[in-house]
Amino acid sequence: MDAILLQTLNGLDKGSAYALIALGLTLIFGTLGVVNFAHGALFMMGAFCAVTFNKLLTLSTITLDPEKKDFLGNPLQVRTPYIEDWLGPELGAAIIDWSVPLAILFAIPVMIIIGLVMERGLIKYFYKRPHADQILVTFGLAIVLQEIIKFYYGANPIPTPAPSAFAGSFDFGALIGMDPGTIIYPYWRLVYFAFALLVIVAVFVFLRFTTFGMVVRAGMADRETVGLLGINIDKRFTIMFAIAACVAGLAGVMYAPINSPNYHMGMDFLVLSFVVVVVGGMGSLAGAVLAGFLLGILESFASMTQVLDVLPGINQIIIYLVAIVVLLTRPRGLMGRKGVMED
User: Fold this and answer.
1) Containing domain of residue 86, as a range?
2) Where are the beta strands (DSSP E) in the chain?
3) How many CB atoms lie under 10 A from the CB of residue 293?
4) What gap in Å lies between CA 254 and CA 112, rounded to an integer?
5) pTM of the model
6) Count of domains for the chain
7) CATH number, domain containing residue 94
8) Which contacts of 204-212 are long-range, i.e. CB under 8 A and separated by 24 or more positions?
9) DSSP class of residue 146?
10) Each residue's pLDDT tens digit, 290-338
11) Is 53 within 8 Å of 111 (Cβ atoms)?
């Protein structure tokens, strides 16, 4: 029982990342009809927003402490972050400690600007081009962004710690009445799951209960008719592209303590996220979220030792096997609209 609960938690953790990235992908495909292979790079850019914000907060002045010596007998250099000089050592240290959650405030405008530049500068020229052209140009853009990050930040992963308040693990077993220590799970992974749910609910509420969202949903269903009503639907779709980029970026920011940011992390999630979108149904937001969590849990259970002993390597291909079965039996995906991907 403890193994099942632990793998379920692991699956929800993975599924949170899959669902957030797939949600952004589906927003872009559903509104603009663009297959965006640069979306994984947006996830990576979000993670490096957290890295950059941490580096900005830790910019320091260097002073010499004559009372402390290095191994050569020279006065020891003491680094004091500027923010501690400005706000005091306690408040400054606390802000640095909480740099990852605070990086959300930094990442939102950055990712919106990146999304707007991408859409206005490149993507808009490929709206009416075949999906193959869209895949090639956005995949090329992803490689460019990846190499830019590699040039400025290096090829090695950059550890980005979670706040010290969430550095430990939660005794999940004791909470549900099992023996203490039976199921220990990191606090930050639980925080990430809660954050993912919050973002997903916010996106659905925005699309369903705001005038802007209602117009966007109408445009997704019948773009031409909405345009004939005098509404600039293209402008709204551009904003939706920026929102989708922001969702991917925020997913990357909060994932930084779980997986140290590196230049190829976007590619690691990209293919899996596209599989999630296809399984859930192209253009279906609810399908993307549902498939993200389901496939995350399935991949987690496939990673169990008992399963790997019987089917070695199944954890590496299980998601693709599920995608094949779904496409053969239900080409439009679990919750896809009728006619999509069925021609």
Assistant:
1) 2-329
2) 60-69, 75-81, 169-171, 184-186
3) 21
4) 17
5) 0.88
6) 1
7) 1.10.3470
8) 204/285, 207/285, 212/236, 212/239
9) H
10) 999 998 898 888 888 888 888 888 888 888 898 899 888 888 888 876 6
11) no
